[in-house]
């Protein structure tokens, strides 16, 4: 019998509030003749990537962002993708775009990112945007870390002075989140420990934290024994594991939910935690990009 007292942080609800607020900002932009536009670029036919791209387009439709899509053949030379990127950089209707990862092996993703106009880089991955973020002058916060910050804020979790342990040091989650949380800012001011596959005694690092963010891509890596009493647990992980159901798989996080929830004061579920926030923050960055490019001030949530 499990005994879950932890508050379940509802990412769907928080994301929905953010989308509502963005809808107002989008109307303001549209009234000024500047409806925001987001493009997605997909090279190849990876089914998971196709699903992500479809979701992003649906999200745009719901809030009134114009969406565009570009398909590039998976066998095409990298130059074909670069040409599409150059076209998007010049297209005034497209305020932001993303090149869905992963790209095929013969294409260098870093080079792809470098070619994206930093003003339209709504993923926040371009070196200029990474540098600005580290320097405390972010133009676009990467969507997943930004979503984690918004979830913490919505759950009333003060990061100031908190010990935060992040499991994972990727360029899209762990590193930018660590950089955001150490900023001298209201939603920063944390003391951050970043763990990875070479970390010794991971459990000791997570157990002593006020906030644990798991972003390792390792199913149920963090269990209740690794969580301190009353800590806040944010599970970024989305992992497919075999299951005896119609689909043949289910999605699990990087946290063993049941045991961690027995120790935590608040915890995000998978699905329904960080995932919807990542999608909402892409819309946020698109609205911000449009506002900056069109010179129309809007209130962002
Ligand atoms: P990466 O594979 O790029 O990075 C994983 C990181 O975790 C690496 O730094 C790796 O260490 C570390 N790691 C892996 N295993 C362990 C371990 N056993 N102990 C300690 N550290 C470990 O993954 P991403 O950052 O791209 O994604 C992480 C997870 O988040 C995935 O499940 C992904 O699907 C999910 N995700 C979810 C999103 C959402 O919106 N919900 C968005 C983005 C990602 P090292 O560097 O040493 O290899």
TrEMBL record:
* GO CC terms in record: cytosol
What protein am I looking at? Bifunctional protein FolD
Taxonomic lineage from the root: Archaea, Methanobacteriati, Methanobacteriota, Stenosarchaea group, Halobacteria
> What is known about what this protein does?
Catalyzes the oxidation of 5,10-methylenetetrahydrofolate to 5,10-methenyltetrahydrofolate and then the hydrolysis of 5,10-methenyltetrahydrofolate to 10-formyltetrahydrofolate.
Record keywords, A-Z: Amino-acid biosynthesis, Histidine biosynthesis, Hydrolase, Methionine biosynthesis, Multifunctional enzyme, NADP, One-carbon metabolism, Oxidoreductase, Purine biosynthesis
Pathway the protein acts in: One-carbon metabolism; tetrahydrofolate interconversion
Q: Where is the Tetrahydrofolate dehydrogenase/cyclohydrolase catalytic domain?
A: 9-123
Q: What domain of life does the UniProt record list for this protein's source?
A: Archaea
The subunit field of the Swiss-Prot or TrEMBL record says: Homodimer.
The entry assigns this protein to a family as follows: Belongs to the tetrahydrofolate dehydrogenase/cyclohydrolase family.
Q: Which GO terms describe its biological process?
A: L-histidine biosynthetic process; methionine biosynthetic process; purine nucleotide biosynthetic process; tetrahydrofolate interconversion
């Amino acid at each position: 019998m499990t005994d879950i007292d932890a508050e379940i942080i509802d990412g769907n609800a928080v994301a929905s509030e953010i989308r509502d607020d963005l809808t107002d900002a989008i109307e303001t932009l549209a009234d000024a003749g500047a409806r925001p536009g987001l493009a997605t670029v997909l090279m190849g036919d990876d089914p998971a990537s196709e699903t992500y791209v479809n979701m992003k387009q649906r999200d745009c439709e719901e809030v009134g962002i114009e969406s565009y899509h570009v398909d590039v053949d998976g066998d095409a030379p990298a130059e074909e993708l670069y040409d599409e990127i150059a076209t998007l950089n010049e297209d005034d209707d497209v305020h932001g775009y993303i090149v869905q990862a992963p790209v095929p092996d013969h294409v260098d993703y870093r080079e792809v990112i470098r070619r994206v106009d930093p003003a339209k880089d709504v993923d926040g991955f371009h070196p200029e945007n990474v540098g600005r973020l580290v320097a405390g002058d972010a133009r676009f916060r990467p969507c997943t870390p930004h979503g984690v910050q918004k979830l913490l804020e919505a759950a009333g979790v003060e990061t100031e002075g908190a010990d935060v342990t992040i499991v994972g040091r990727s360029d899209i989650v762990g590193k930018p989140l660590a950089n955001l949380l150490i900023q001298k800012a209201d939603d920063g001011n944390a003391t951050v420990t970043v763990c990875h596959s070479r970390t010794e005694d991971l459990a000791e690092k997570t157990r002593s934290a006020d906030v644990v963010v798991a972003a390792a891509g390792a199913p149920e890596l963090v269990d209740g024994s690794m969580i301190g009493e009353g800590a806040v647990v944010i599970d970024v992980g989305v992992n497919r594991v075999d299951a005896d159901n119609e689909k043949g798989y289910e999605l699990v996080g990087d946290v063993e939910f049941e045991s961690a929830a027995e120790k935590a004061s608040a915890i995000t579920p998978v699905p329904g935690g960080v995932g919807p926030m990542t999608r909402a923050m892409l819309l946020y960055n698109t609205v911000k990009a449009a506002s900056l490019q069109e010179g129309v001030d809007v209130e962002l949530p």
